[in-house]
Amino acid sequence: MDQELSTRILSAVDDLFDREIEFLTELTSHPSTRGQEQSAQAFMASALTERGMEVDQWQIDAADIRDMPGFSPILGDYEDAQNVVGTHRPRTAKGRSLILNGHIDVVPAGPLDMWDRPPFEPHVANGWLYGRGAGDMKAGLASNLFALDALRHIGLAPAADVYFQSVVEEECTGNGALACLARGYKADAALIPEPFEEKLVTSQIGVIWFQVHLKGLPTHVAYAGQGANAIEAAIPLIAALHEMEHRWNAAENRHPDFAHHQHALNLNVGKIQGGDWTSSVPAWSVLDLRMAIFPGQDIKAAKTEIEQVIYDAARGNEFLKNSLPEVVYHGFLAEGYALSEDTSPTATAAIGALDRAHLATTGETLDRAAITATTDARFFGLYADTPALVYGPRAEAIHGFNERVELESIRRITQSTALFIADWCGVETL
Amino acid sequence: MDQELSTRILSAVDDLFDREIEFLTELTSHPSTRGQEQSAQAFMASALTERGMEVDQWQIDAADIRDMPGFSPILGDYEDAQNVVGTHRPRTAKGRSLILNGHIDVVPAGPLDMWDRPPFEPHVANGWLYGRGAGDMKAGLASNLFALDALRHIGLAPAADVYFQSVVEEECTGNGALACLARGYKADAALIPEPFEEKLVTSQIGVIWFQVHLKGLPTHVAYAGQGANAIEAAIPLIAALHEMEHRWNAAENRHPDFAHHQHALNLNVGKIQGGDWTSSVPAWSVLDLRMAIFPGQDIKAAKTEIEQVIYDAARGNEFLKNSLPEVVYHGFLAEGYALSEDTSPTATAAIGALDRAHLATTGETLDRAAITATTDARFFGLYADTPALVYGPRAEAIHGFNERVELESIRRITQSTALFIADWCGVETL
User: Fold this and answer.
1) Which cofactor does it need (chains A, B) (predicted)?
2) A124 close contact with B: CB closer than 8 A
3) How far apart are CA A18 and CA A210, in angstroms?
4) What is the per-residue DSSP string for A95-117?
5) I need a surface site. Which of A292, A324, B168, B343 has the fewest CB within 10 A?
């Protein structure tokens, strides 16, 4: 790309940057936790329509994706889980096609009293925008949109098909991105601006969610010795799972991209509930856990080992050995994905284009990172032969309180993205 | 009491026994868990009215009892917590007055799939009546009622004031019995047929309910090492509380009535809840615990020690040491009570009357028991100078699944109770 075009694109992002932050602020004010994404998706759909894109908004049907690789089990069917895809068609398709993907769902805010300001009343302070989902990843959706706007601002449009995807379910299954594949959306590359500090993600771990249902032998606490406490029975199981976590993280088990990461695979006891009455020995408890796996680690084998560890620990409990815990999967059964292993010419070209865009924007070379989370990139990379570049802004406290995203970082990501689109897709005049 | 009267009373209970079990079956079908006692109380009130008693049914007002000794803290005020008391007045008061007390509230049924048959569809099988609350303690309420019926059946009535109490809140605070005291109900003795295997309870432990609120530092699980898991943080606190439990149960700390009981004081982790999202390090958890104390053990000192143990354990946690758990009391703050320590002539006389009644019914001497639970007896014994005799039928799996009470045991308890009333209150002809 010539220097002059590059400079015009960077300036165009600057010109629109206040509007971009306004857009992000409004988008963040939609409390789009799982099941509540409708108003945020309507906002996205209307933004795409205004820009002249052809908008496809549909309800996910589990039947369409249940038998596809990468599907994660869900409880029941989907109600009101809607994806939005806007399609840009060039007058003449000269360049390579592109998917700009982002997820609209955000994780729960948690206890509101632990936030300095309400999570869905976003505000800017000291160069950061605060709010649940601001970083993870509505800033990415805004960046994708305003990168296209910047081109239009200077009378240009991508010279290839561009699919703008706003998907649900990224935070629990990935079935939103999978449903886009099922609907036939394909391109030469995908870009996902998840908030990983302006680095290119070369590798991401896989994630397994599992529930452990424990039973106990209830009794009046007066006879607690004769009962079996279904809450306390969980404690040795948690300890055994941490031992497994320790083994899986051992140096000899690591994927090369995580060779120097001491603890890439985290076990999380994310939720627990149990018991009905303070003076009754509890008859039941349910734990929701998350465990990570390396790219290439087999999900089926991982599940088997998780179950074995749980059963073995349970056999040490007088009551549980005759009433083994039940392990239920609903939520992530996500494989790891390593872009670093994609040596195809397309991947090499896409990474090269992003390298150039980042350098032109920041004056620095693009850093690589192997991340300890999953993203929807796996669907493109593993199941659609499409290199997926995860590259997004700097955010802090994602999934925590006072989640925030840095404004200048959003600006840089939007600029790089606009340059990347112009390079990858080529441009044509409006 | 002459032999002939005794025989007539025993037969009268037999004559009415089928009706008693019918009554108990219907009473057990009312699902009178905390807050849902209204239909069961209406049923009791109408049974008392039918029998010509003067019925007092009232809504507990926390303001009436809040400053009384024995009050247990509650969340908010009471809504729809109604006590029922039926009063029998003799034509001529010759004997000693009596309170026949029982509680109408039952503990939650727990997961329904763990019951062989629905908990509130009581049924008789192999000599037992099954259902939540059948044993704890609707059989006792039925026994109290049909003991009076048996006297009436042979043309007699107690020759003293008898107060038939059906109270709420026994399973969580005792504030129902306390509200009866506040309303002025007093008598020379009280009988409470709680299901302790036809033994006379000489001593009962005290109970403290406490909630522990833990905070954590939430984060995306990808960075779990930087967060603080509010669920797992509970584990060392539970361990520390078990150490305290062990100390409190040590031989040198035991009340004499529990000298040979290795473990009278049980700690129960009864309920737990925590976390909002499987892939977020949980920011909060809440535990509901129950700990017992010996008669004579000071509640205030016990609370202080519980808090100290929790804070000390929390200080071992990098995050919690700067964000100590909150300990909240709502529910039992119940002192222990030892009838065995009441050497008053009234207590001696009441126990003697029950000894005789039990012997006449069963041909065996009345066994004594020190129990590891609390009952409403403490209000009469500790705060109203009224000896309270806890003496009721054999039940199994109270607070558990398939709770049941033995029919022949109910018959014997009803017979002993009728004899006891005739002896203690005297009788007059109708």
Assistant:
1) Zn(2+); Co(2+)
2) no
3) 43
4) S--EEEEEE--B-----GGGSSS
5) B343
* Nearest in space to A412 (alpha carbons), one of A393, A398, A390: A393
How remote is the C-alpha of A151 from its chain's centroid? Answer: 27
For the stretch B150-181, pLDDT in tens is 999 999 999 999 999 999 999 999 999 999 99
Q: What is the pLDDT of residue A346?
A: 98
Domain residue ranges of chain A, discontinuous segments joined by + = 3-204+337-429, 206-334
Asked whether residue A6 carries a pLDDT value surpassing 80, the answer given is: yes
With a cut of 0.90, is the ipTM above it?
A: yes
Question: Which chain B residues contact residue A398 at CB under 8 A?
Answer: 219-220
| Type of residue at A236 | P
Give the closest-approach CA distance of A191 to chain B in angstroms.
Answer: 21
User: Given this model, what pLDDT does residue A75 score?
Assistant: 76
Rounded Cα distance, A359 and A170, in Å: 29
Element (H, E) at A31: none
The total of other beta-carbon atoms located within 10 Å of residue B349's CB is: 16
Min Cα–Cα distance to chain A from B240, Å: 13
Give the CATH class of A206-334.
Answer: alpha beta
Q: Which of A216, A244, A241, A202 is nearest to A372 (CA)?
A: A202
The DSSP annotation for A291-336 comes to EEE-TT--HHHHHHHHHHHHHHHHTTSTTGGGSPPEEE--S-EE--
- Against a cut of 0.90, is the pTM above it? yes
A3-204+337-429 falls under which CATH superfamily?
Zn peptidases (3.40.630.10)
